[in-house]
Amino acid sequence: MATSQDPDELFDRQLRDCTVDLNGILPELAARYSPVAVIAALATHVGGGLKICVESGVCTQDQARNLLRRLERLAFEKDCVPPRAGRPSA
Prior knowledge:
- With 90 residues, the chain is mainly α.
- The protein has a domain at 51-78.
- The longest helix is centred in the first third of the chain and has 26 residues, at 7-32.
- The model is unreliable at 86-90 (pLDDT under 50).
- 0% of the residues are buried.
- It is built from three helices and no strands.
- The chain has helices spanning 7-32, 35-56, 61-76.
- The radius of gyration is 15 Å and the shape is globular.
């Protein structure tokens, strides 16, 4: 019998797993480029991805702005600690 997974749980699992994958790639990039270049490249991808998501109706402009505000909190608020990526889910 097939069970449907809660969309929030599915997203959380995918986010964790993708973060683990990125953690595997970032050291190689950091060895080849300056940290600022790596972050700038990631920011360029995030901005382009958000634009595509908004234009295609995957998310609204307000949702995209909320994500950017979250990113800003993670970067600049003293008490905001980013979640640590664990092992990939099975």
